[in-house]
């Protein structure tokens, strides 16, 4: 007879005492303050009450908050002391819980496995007996009809065997899953109890251990390969490259200078990926990235050219910007680059947001428009190099010293990239707009019923992308002489990087960290292949294969298994 | 065994932790009609979907005329003689009757579709069924009941051995119901079997030979209709006495606080001249047949559907919502009918789903605070008694009832004054339904105005103070719940058909 296990965390009376005491102490203090603040926030949003009533309500609440603050200050020390004690006590109980449940469930799991194996053997034996009986019953009957009938009977027999085996396996799996869930629950309860004792604050270490525990609980070999197969394959690829590298005669691949170069090359590409990531998040895409890069780079190149420009634009110019102060020129170049990219992006965005034209089409349109304008305007002539002083100031490197015989320099371009990554992360995770992006990408219908303006979120994403492209294009000019053909095909790399990084084309899923990793992988890939002397055209083959592998693995996850 | 056309053995199916079907055993005899009853969420549709290959069963076997079968798709089922007439018909409305009849299997002559043969076969089919339908008619121009007849004819033309009818009379008039029954009888004589899924006990007693009752995924009752009676069926379906199904509706409504005057929508489906008044703290029911326009009315009130004329007044203040955000800022909330479609964010966590409409409240110094988001999620999990492991869980790993709780919790975070609910307990297990009823009554007691759309007669009679009935896009009447009954509601809902 199974003994009903005690759930220490729920049923322990001392722990309950602690909880109740903490609740009592916090009730009129910190908790009250938080409730009152919520009410003020709600009143500010409420358009049903008129301004005078609202003001009165807010002032009254603020008075109450002041009163509550006094109580809170009074109880603070006591709360801290009791909470610490309570958590320590709870940890002991939790440990007991976890251990005992694990013991119990592991025993169950062993029992289930034994039963299952026994059952499978039984079934197989039973159906083998039936099979012999069927064969026996057809002995001596050799007409075609008899053969057919026997075949049919055998087929049904086999089908029933498979069916019964399948049933047994399903039952076994359900039992195992339930046991595992019970084990996992104890960890979750542990962390949640501590959290509630601490009134909502989490300990980083607890979070980490819970996430790890959850990971173990949900771990399945097949799932692991589905989620990470791509990265494993790419890792193996890099390792192979590193091994082959010395043989190809170009020296060591895995060296600090090489790594910095990969990061430098990733830095500018990072901007494009961060921009297009937002579009992919709402199940869209952007085919105009490359041309926008050209647009911004050309403008920057024109403004920062030492002396008079070689090139005219739409029969205007040539201009000479050298008379302007340095920072004025830089500022102007960056500003114009951003403004133009945002303008075209918003143009495409408007059609997608208002008329629901798929971004593929609207950005294809802007791609062609920008291409035409640029080539017609500059006749394809490169705008010439940027003043070398300026070039070095932003795009140069700082010498760090020597490491194992190589000169190590730190590329300055990494700095803006880091700012961009932080900005994107902040927007995606810490702002209302970011959450709305996920909402629109995940389920636009639900978003519009939930008070989110799908139009403005879409426009916002296009505009944000434009800002990123503008910044990136500005920096692009520091790498090579800009021309109307600069950036051709960049969109493919940017989109591929995002997809490989886990931003799903179906929308609503993805993280900035994914985009960052994707960019570094793709840049690293290109670099490795070039380092090994592989033809640039062949590199496209690799990129294509990685892209289809990434999307396929992503799609398998969402393929409805019914 | 010869006279059993369909046998279901030990059928089980679970969705995540929710066991929807638990070891179901059922037999349908040749040439008989089996009534299948059970509340919403009892497992009737799931059982049928497993049979037709739309869902993969976890356990169990289907036997058709003694042979084991495992259909991978409705098409395969149809070709083997198992047909289904759905509650919501899947037909090509812009094509003719005969095009629909022969969809996917057009008779060909020399590689080209043989329209003459199609016509001849269709006419023969309808004649044999004593149906008066012109095969050239475009489906869209026919009434729902006529389209249903065509669907049944289609099943017959596939030489179906067994036809499943899913809530066949929900959109039919009395006359049409009679016609349906006579077709069923004539087909019975020819040896066709039926599974008749319905809520309506009177009909089941009229047309079925046997009746089976599902409750919470288990087969509770399986008897000949002559050997059982209504009370037995009711207690089998409900499991507890009717009074205990609903909590006491003991809220006391106050004065009239919200009024809708002459509301009409601009685009299809066009609602006309909807007027009613609701009191503070009242639970106001909205009943009607499928297609009467109730969901559209709620959408119009919430600013999601364009209003052509008419107005809404709350506490003397005229309201005109341009979009859902406007409605939300005026303390309105809307729980939609189909949560998968537009109620929840299926790719996101419980926390995301709870907090997404109220993000401004979870900020510290203008930045979203993880702590506040988490607190809010936990707050609603506690209030709604949602069964989950943690707020970081994906909402899709919860059962339907718990998903609905999360969605309702999301709106409660905003503390609305007017709560619009469209079929709030659809597709939810009985236990969760009760909890949601309790919540609705609790909210009404706190002074909120609740407008509930429901298609379930017992539900609308069980938890409301007053009921408005819509019929064919117009308001047919408003009654006090205590003074009305099923027949009155049905009569009103057929008023403008």
Keywords:
heterodimer; A: 562 residues; mainly alpha; two-stranded antiparallel ribbon; B: 497 residues; alpha/beta; 6-stranded mixed sheet; 33% helix; 27% strand; globular
Provide an overview of this structure.
The complex is a heterodimer of chains A (562) and B (497). Chain A has 19 helices and two strands. Chain A has helices spanning 8-11, 13-27, 30-45, 51-137, 144-197, 204-218, 221-244, 256-281, 289-303, 326-355, 359-378, 388-395, 414-430, 432-442, 444-449, 454-476, 490-500, 512-531, 536-558; strands at residues 397-403, 406-411. Chain A has a two-stranded antiparallel sheet with strand order 1-2. In chain A, strand 1 and strand 2 (406-411) form a beta hairpin. Chain A is globular. Chain B has 497 residues and is an alpha/beta fold. Chain B is 33% helix and 27% strand. In chain B, a hairpin with a 2-residue loop joins strand 19 and strand 20 (367-368). Chain B is globular, with a radius of gyration of 24 Å. At the A-B interface, helix 3, helix 5, helix 14 and helix 15 of A face strand 4, helix 11, strand 20 and helix 14 of B.
Biggest interchain interface, per-side counts: A-B, 47 and 54 residues
Rg of chain B, nearest Å: 24 Å
Q: Please give the order of strands in the largest beta sheet of chain B.
A: 6-9-10-3-11-12
Would you identify the regions of chain B where 5 or more consecutive residues have pLDDT less than 50? none
Outline type of chain A: globular
Give the structural class of chain A. mainly alpha
| Beta-strand segment tally of chain B | 24
Backbone shape of chain B: globular
Uncertain parts of chain A: none
Main beta sheet of chain A: 2 strands, antiparallel
Specify the number of helices of chain B: 18
Per-chain topology:
The complex is a heterodimer of chains A (562) and B (497).
Chain A: H1 8-11, H2 13-27, H3 30-45, H4 51-137, H5 144-197, H6 204-218, H7 221-244, H8 256-281, H9 289-303, H10 326-355, H11 359-378, H12 388-395, E1 397-403, E2 406-411, H13 414-430, H14 432-442, H15 444-449, H16 454-476, H17 490-500, H18 512-531, H19 536-558
Antiparallel strand pairs in A: 1-2
Helix pairs in contact in A: 2-4, 3-4, 4-5, 5-6, 7-18, 7-19, 8-13, 8-16, 8-17, 8-18, 9-10, 9-11, 9-16, 10-11, 10-16, 13-14, 14-16, 17-18, 17-19
Chain B: E1 4-15, E2 18-29, E3 33-37, H1 44-51, E4 59-64, E5 67-69, H2 74-79, E6 82-85, H3 97-101, E7 108-109, E8 112-113, H4 115-128, H5 144-157, E9 162-166, H6 174-189, E10 193-197, H7 201-207, E11 210-215, E12 218-224, H8 230-238, H9 242-245, E13 256-265, E14 274-279, E15 283-288, H10 294-301, E16 307-314, E17 317-319, H11 324-329, E18 332-335, H12 339-342, H13 350-355, E19 363-364, E20 367-368, H14 370-384, H15 400-412, E21 418-422, H16 430-445, E22 449-453, H17 457-463, E23 466-471, E24 474-480, H18 486-493
Parallel strand pairs in B: 3-10, 3-11, 6-9, 9-10, 15-22, 15-23, 18-21, 21-22
Antiparallel strand pairs in B: 1-2, 1-4, 4-5, 7-8, 11-12, 13-14, 13-16, 16-17, 19-20, 23-24
């Amino acid at each position: 007879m199974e003994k009903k296990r005690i759930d220490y965390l729920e049923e322990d009376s001392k722990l309950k005492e602690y909880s109740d005491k903490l609740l009592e102490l916090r009730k009129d203090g910190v908790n009250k303050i938080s409730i009152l603040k919520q009410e003020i926030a709600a009143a500010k949003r409420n358009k049903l009450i008129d301004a005078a009533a609202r003001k009165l309500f807010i002032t009254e609440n603020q008075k109450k908050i002041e009163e509550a603050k006094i109580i809170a200050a009074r109880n603070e020390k006591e709360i801290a002391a009791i909470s610490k004690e309570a958590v320590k006590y709870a940890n002991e109980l939790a440990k007991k819980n976890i251990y005992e449940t694990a013991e119990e469930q592991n025993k169950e799991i062993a029992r289930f496995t034994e039963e299952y194996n026994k059952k499978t053997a039984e079934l197989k034996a039973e159906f083998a007996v039936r099979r012999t009986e069927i064969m026996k019953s057809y002995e001596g009957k050799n007409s075609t009809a008899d053969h057919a009938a026997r075949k049919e009977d055998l087929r049904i027999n086999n089908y029933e065997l498979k069916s019964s085996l399948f049933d047994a396996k399903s039952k076994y799996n359900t039992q195992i899953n339930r046991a595992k869930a019970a084990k996992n629950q104890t960890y979750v309860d542990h962390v949640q109890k501590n959290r509630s004792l601490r009134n909502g604050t989490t300990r980083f270490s607890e979070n980490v251990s819970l996430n790890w525990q959850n990971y173990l609980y949900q771990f399945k070999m097949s799932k692991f390969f589905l989620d990470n197969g791509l990265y494993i394959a790419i890792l193996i690829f890099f390792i192979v490259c590193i091994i082959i590298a010395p043989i190809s005669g170009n020296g060591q691949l895995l060296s600090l200078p090489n790594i910095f170069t990969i990061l430098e090359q990733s830095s500018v590409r990072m901007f494009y990926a961060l921009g297009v990531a937002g579009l992919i998040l709402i199940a869209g895409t952007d085919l105009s990235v490359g041309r926008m890069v050209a647009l911004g780079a050309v403008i920057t190149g024109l403004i920062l050219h030492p002396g008079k420009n070689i090139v005219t634009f739409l029969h205007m110019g040539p201009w000479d910007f050298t008379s302007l102060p340095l920072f004025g020129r830089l500022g102007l170049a960056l500003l114009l680059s951003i403004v133009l990219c945002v303008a075209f992006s918003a143009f495409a965005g408007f059609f997608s947001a208002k008329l629901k034209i798929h971004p593929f089409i609207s950005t294809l349109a802007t791609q062609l428009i920008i291409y035409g304008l640029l080539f017609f305007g500059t006749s394809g002539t490169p705008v010439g190099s940027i003043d070398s002083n300026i070039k070095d100031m932003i795009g140069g490197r700082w010498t760090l010293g020597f490491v194992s015989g190589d000169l190590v320099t730190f590329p300055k371009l990494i700095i803006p990239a880091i700012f961009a990554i932080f900005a994107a992360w902040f927007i995606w995770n810490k702002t209302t707009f970011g959450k709305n992006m996920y909402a629109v990408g995940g389920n636009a219908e639900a978003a519009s019923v939930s008070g989110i303006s799908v139009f403005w979120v879409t426009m916002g994403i296009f505009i944000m992308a434009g800002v990123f492209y503008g910044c990136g294009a500005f920096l692009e000019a520091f790498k090579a002489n800009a021309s109307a053909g600069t950036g051709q095909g960049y969109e493919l790399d940017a989109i591929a990087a995002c997809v490989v990084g886990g931003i799903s084309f179906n929308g609503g899923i993805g993280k900035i960290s994914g985009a960052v990793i994707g960019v570094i992988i793709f840049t690293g890939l290109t670099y490795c292949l070039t380092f090994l002397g592989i033809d640039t055209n062949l590199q496209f083959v690799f990129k294509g294969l990685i892209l289809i592998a990434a999307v396929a693995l992503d799609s398998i996850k969402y393929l409805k298994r019914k | 065994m010869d006279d059993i056309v369909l046998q279901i053995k030990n059928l089980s199916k679970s969705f995540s932790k929710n066991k929807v079907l638990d070891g179901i055993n059922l037999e349908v005899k040749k040439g008989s009609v089996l009534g299948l009853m059970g509340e919403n969420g009892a497992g009737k549709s799931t059982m049928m979907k497993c049979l037709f290959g739309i869902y993969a069963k976890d356990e169990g076997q289907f036997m058709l005329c003694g042979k084991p079968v495992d259909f991978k798709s409705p098409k395969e089922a149809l070709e083997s003689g198992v047909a289904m007439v759905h509650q919501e018909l899947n037909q090509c409305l812009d094509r003719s009757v005969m095009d629909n009849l022969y969809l996917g299997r057009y008779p060909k002559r020399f590689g080209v579709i043989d329209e003459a043969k199609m016509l001849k076969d269709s006419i023969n089919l309808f004649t044999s069924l004593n149906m008066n339908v012109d095969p050239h008619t475009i489906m869209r121009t026919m009434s729902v009941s006529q389209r249903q007849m065509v669907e049944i004819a289609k099943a017959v033309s596939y030489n179906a051995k067994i036809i499943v009818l899913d809530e066949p009379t929900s959109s039919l008039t009395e006359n049409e119901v009679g016609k349906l029954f006579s077709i069923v009888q004539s087909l019975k004589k020819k040896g066709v079997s039926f599974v008749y899924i319905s809520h309506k006990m009177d009909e089941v007693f009229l047309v079925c030979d046997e009746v089976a009752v599902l409750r919470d995924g288990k087969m509770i009752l399986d008897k000949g209709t002559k050997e059982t009676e209504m009370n037995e069926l009711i207690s089998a379906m409900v499991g507890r006495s009717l009074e205990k199904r609903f909590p006491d509706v003991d809220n006391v409504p106050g004065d009239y606080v919200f009024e809708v005057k002459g509301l009409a929508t601009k685009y299809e489906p066009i609602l006309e001249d909807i007027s009613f008044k609701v009191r503070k703290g009242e639970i106001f029911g909205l009943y009607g047949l499928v297609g009467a326009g109730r969901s559209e009315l709620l959408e119009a009130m919430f600013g999601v559907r364009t209003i052509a004329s008419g107005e809404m007044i709350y506490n003397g203040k005229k309201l005109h919502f341009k979009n859902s955000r406007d409605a939300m800022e005026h303390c309105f909330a809307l729980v939609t009918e189909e949560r998968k479609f537009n109620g929840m964010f299926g790719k996101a966590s419980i926390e995301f789903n709870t907090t997404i409409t109220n993000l401004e409240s979870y900020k510290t110094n203008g930045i979203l605070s993880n702590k506040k988001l988490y607190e809010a999620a936990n707050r609603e999990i506690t209030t709604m008694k949602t069964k989950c492991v943690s707020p970081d869980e994906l909402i899709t790993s919860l059962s339907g009832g718990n998903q609905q709780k999360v969605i309702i919790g999301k709106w409660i975070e905003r503390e609305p004054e007017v709560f619009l609910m469209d079929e709030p307990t659809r597709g939810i297990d009985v236990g969760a339904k009760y909890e949601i009823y309790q919540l609705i009554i609790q909210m009404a007691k706190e002074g909120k105005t609740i407008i509930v759309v429901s298609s379930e007669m017992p539900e609308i009679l069980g938890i409301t103070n007053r009921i408005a009935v819509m019929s064919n896009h117009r308001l047919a009447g408003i009654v006090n719940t205590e003074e009305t009954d099923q027949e009155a509601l049905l009569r009103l809902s057929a008023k403008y058909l």
